[in-house]
Amino acid sequence: ASKQAGRNRATFFSDEMGVEAKARDLVELQLKHAVENKEFTLHFQPRVSMRTGKVVSAEALVRWNHPQRGLIMPSEFIAICEETGLIEDLGQLVLELGCRQAITWHQTGLDIDLSLNISPRQFENQRLLQSLERFARHPDFPENKIELEITENVLIGDHDLIAEKLSTISKLGYRIAIDDFGTGYSNLSYISRFPLHCLKIDQSFISQLPKSGPIISLILTLGRQIGATIVAEGVESCEQLAWLRDHDCDEVQGYFLSPPVQAKNLPAMIQLLNLSTGVIRDAHEKFI
Ligand code: C2E
Ligand code: MG
Ligand code: MG
Ligand code: MG
Questions:
Q1: For 232-238, which contacts have Cβ atoms below 8 Å and span 24 or more sequence positions?
Q2: Rounded to the nearest 10 degrees, what angle do helices 126-136 and 159-171 cross at?
Q3: Percent of the chain at pLDDT exceeding 90
Q4: H or E element: which one contains 285?
């Protein structure tokens, strides 16, 4: 009987794996179709200046608008896209949607910057530079108001080549941010070599405050030395906000201020946040 059970189990497991592999194939196929049909949309999460309490920027975060399942978050598809190469077309789509949005904001007088996430594979691809050049030629291109977020891992490799690429992008009128700073590649020598305008402290450090205080202080000092704007990601509480304000962090982003919202809801969210600058001041006074 035990032999029988063992055999059944073996079949059971291999069937399970078959099902999983098939499910993954299906997602891949659906994703390919989705990229072709442009079933993606951007949500925008405001970034608030600690100095003025005003919204200065918004990060574009992609969502898959699945015809049956509704909105799907990037954790379910970005890695698959990166592995299969679909990210090149998806990244292109995001870049187009994002740049068009930034141009619209500029034209309608909404004075905020825009951040776009660029995947490692997309950064490698020559198409990125071509597209960035094309958008930069638009008569209403908002110069130095579009920021490209790359992760530290993108900076591994030939530093001369990377430095050249970053400086080309920078000269075209885009800013460069390092996303999830402190979690990736640990060689810090690149910091002073590359044109970096912004460091985004990874949310894992923010969620571990005050224990992670010394690391955040170090990043703040480093950022100031190179003249970069420091942004804290994933701010979820008044205590975290107060700590960051007391340590002169430049900007904050996180659910405590606002979740990512649809483009059509962004102006109202900005208005609400701009009216409640007191949130930041109160956080300061309460915990000083
Ligand atoms: P990220 O670029 O570090 O973006 C921040 C993520 O943290 C977003 O998740 C955001 O919704 C979430 N977040 C914001 N505030 C809070 C908070 O207070 N607490 C917590 N726990 N989370 C917060 P999302 O939208 O699910 O995106 C996840 C990741 O997917 C992004 O991390 C980014 O790496 C990637 N991603 C998103 N959009 C794109 C894109 O257009 N292209 C590429 N290549 N990657 C993207
Ligand atoms: Mg990001
Ligand atoms: Mg991040
Ligand atoms: Mg992240």
A1: 232/200, 232/201, 232/206, 233/180, 233/200, 233/201, 233/202, 233/203, 233/206, 234/202, 234/203, 234/204, 234/206, 234/207, 235/206, 236/206, 236/207, 238/282, 238/283, 238/286, 238/287
A2: 20
A3: 77
A4: helix 278-287
Tokens linked to 173:
């009128």
pTM: 0.91
The amino acid sitting at 99 is: C
Confirm if 46 and 58 have CB atoms less than 8 A apart. Answer: yes
In terms of Cβ atoms closer than 10 Å to its own Cβ (0-12, 13-18, 19+), residue 99 is: buried
| Nearest C-alpha neighbor of 113 from the set 149, 89, 163 | 149
- Closest ligand to C-alpha of residue 207 is 1
ipTM metric = 0.97
pLDDT of 235 strictly over 50 = yes
Ligand 3 (single-atom ion) residues, CB below 5 Å = 179-180, 233
**Ligand 1 neighbourhood includes 180 CB (under 6 angstroms):** yes
